[in-house]
Amino acid sequence: MTDPLAELAALRAADLPTHGGRTLAYVYDSALPGLDEFAAAAHALAAPANGLDPTAFPSLLRLEREVVATAARLLGGGVGTVTSGGTESCLLAVLAARDSRPDVARPSVVVPETAHAAFHKAGHYFGVRVVAVPVDPVTFRADPAAMAAAVDATTVLVVASAPSYAHGVVDPVAEIAAVAAGRGVRCHVDACIGGWVLPHADVAPFDLRVAGVTSVSVDLHKYAYCPKGVSVLLHADAGLRRAQFFASADWPGYTMLNTTMQSTRSGGPVAAAWAVLRRIGDDGYRELAGRALRSARVVREGIGAIAGLRVLGEPEATLLAVAGEGGDGTGGVDVFVVADELKARGWYAQPQFAHGASPANLHLTLTAANAGHEAELLADLSASVAAARELGAPEVPEGVLAAVRGLTPDQVTAEGVAGLLAATGMGGGGVLPERMAGVNTLLAAAGPRVRERLLVEFLGVLHS
Asked: Which sequence positions carry the modification called N6-(pyridoxal phosphate)lysine (predicted)?
């Protein structure tokens, strides 16, 4: 019999690296020696405990309350709940807003078009209409006047980002919150990715200290450098939070009572987060945030010196969107090819497709692990641009692109997707090619709804 742990290690060897700052999306590395092992030990101590019933496992209740208190101290107070991640925090903010207004027959939420897709997921799950409002085409910040015009009698929530994931810019929270308050509507600030960094940056107030802000979400598995699976949703007061809770006595078993969408919850994630927060401490987080912010600034300035690239908007946090220097976002450089060239040099940058005024670009998340290694990233990025310019755009048959452009969502079938995958060099069973520029070019040719359907079918292939 093979050793399962050895087999797992072999499988993990094919994944993107989670340490060293070379995976510029998905993971967050503090570069603190021993922190992972410390968190894993705390996780193991509490993993068997069940967060479903705080009276049975009071240790978890204490840990959660202290984690929430730490977040509240950083983000302007309030009462809160630990969730499984940023998406669940955003879902619950929408759910609480919807259920607080039973008088609204078909509720809606008003979001800038740069808001995280989690709000569209919430709309899909909860039957809430999502009204996406165009943002400033240059800064990519939300437009308070346009959002005010979108608020109507059905609006139960207005959303701002601090920062937006796609471009790393902070929306004008105070103005948006004033719009919401003036109409008697809740205002949620999605600070999932920035909430543990922005308090240490030179930005305008964005949290519960701002009049009119009623809730804030922040992920601890991002820049608090805790293991994945921990976020906090803060509400300004307990009355606002109440609609988030769920109770059901309408069956013969125990009365179900939940603070989140989950029932059974392992105590591991909250214990690990609690331990990491105490281990790093306020001064440690201030230093880590400073490193990540300085690294992002150095990389941003360095990209400005690379012919063929530009940073979109005016990012204020640790996220950068990098497009071609031309007005169409290309500048003679195909960013999907740049991504492939970066990967060949040991870096992963996340492709982002064109949407509205935002051209196709590459997303870079900088963390404390990137501090001191910016020159290496910039050198490889410059070399990748030069190689991409020489290679040109990927060769995808024009007939295939035309077919994709002409598709409607209801025309996307499993059989058709299999044919498209074959045309772009995709192997059987959803095996990805080494170079993804062709696949991304095909997906970019599709409209958003068609792209969604194509990727859903592909997801089915991966899981079959």
From this structure: 222
Region of poorest pLDDT, from 39-43, 73-77, 317-321, 448-452: 448-452
Task: Tell me the domain boundaries of the chain.
Answer: 35-277, 398-462
Sheet holding 155-161, edge to edge: 79-83, 231-235, 215-219, 186-190, 155-161, 108-112, 129-133
Q: How many residues does the chain have?
A: 464
Residue 416 is predicted with a pLDDT of 76
| Cα–Cα distance measured from residue 325 to residue 225, given in angstroms and rounded to the nearest whole number | 33
Domain 35-277 class in CATH: alpha beta
The model scores a pTM over 0.85: yes
Alpha carbons 148 and 179: distance in angstroms, whole number: 6
For 80, the 3-state DSSP assignment is strand
**Above 60 in pLDDT, residue 327?**
no
Report the SS3 class of residue 403.
Answer: helix
| CA trace torsion 135, 138, 141, 147 (10° rounding) | -30
Kindly report the average pLDDT of the chain as a whole number: 94
